[in-house]
């Protein structure tokens, strides 16, 4: 890794990977943010960007239940990640977090996500427009005689 990207980037990657992340860790980070050095603060900022990416386009709703429960930020009624971004000096990032939490909370209540809420793995939900195509395919498969191999 070091040969490909250099020692500094390797150190960012190592520290990022060491930083376990869930709601409790986020609260702890917020509480001790002022005591972190600049490098540690930048690692936290990278984590915030990664977590945000999980929420963009409602992506968190397509993650397994373990990831959604672990994240749990939008259902907690607080915006700890936005608070961290604010405290780090990135108010625009805090605003984006607030917006993404609101969108995710609204979308999670839609019937489309009721039946897929307990999967333990990430998945792709086909668009609702596929339903008609699937109905046609099932009908055709049911009408096609089964061929035997002799």
Briefly characterize the structure:
The protein has 150 residues and is mainly alpha-helical.
Overview of the structural elements:
The chain has one domain (2-124). The protein is mostly helical and 150 residues long. The longest helix is centred in the first third of the chain and has 18 residues, at 38-55. The protein is built from eight helices and no strands. Helices cover 61% and strands 0% of the residues. Helix 3 (23-32) runs parallel beside helix 6.
- Content-based structural category: mainly alpha
Percent of residues in helices comes to 55-70%
Number of helices: 8
Are there runs of 5+ residues with pLDDT below 50, and where? none
Summarize the main sheet: none
Q: Compute the average pLDDT.
A: 80
Strand content: under 5%
How large is the radius of gyration? 21 Å
Distance between the termini: 56 Å
**Elements, N to C (H/E):** HHHHHHHH
The total tally of domains equals 1
């Amino acid at each position: 890794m070091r040969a490909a990207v250099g020692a500094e980037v390797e150190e960012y990657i190592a520290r990022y990977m060491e930083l376990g992340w869930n709601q409790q860790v986020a609260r702890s980070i917020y509480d001790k943010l002022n005591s972190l050095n600049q490098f540690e603060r930048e690692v936290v900022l990278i984590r915030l960007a990664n977590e945000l990416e999980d929420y963009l386009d409602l992506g968190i709703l397509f993650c397994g239940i373990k990831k959604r429960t672990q994240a749990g930020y939008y259902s907690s009624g607080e915006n700890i990640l936005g608070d961290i971004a604010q405290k780090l000096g990135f108010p625009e990032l805090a605003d984006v977090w607030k917006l993404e939490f609101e969108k995710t909370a609204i979308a999670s209540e839609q019937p489309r996500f009721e039946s897929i809420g307990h999967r333990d793995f990430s998945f792709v939900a086909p668009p609702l427009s596929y339903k008609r195509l699937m109905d046609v395919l099932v009908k055709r498969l049911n009408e096609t005689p089964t061929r035997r191999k002799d």
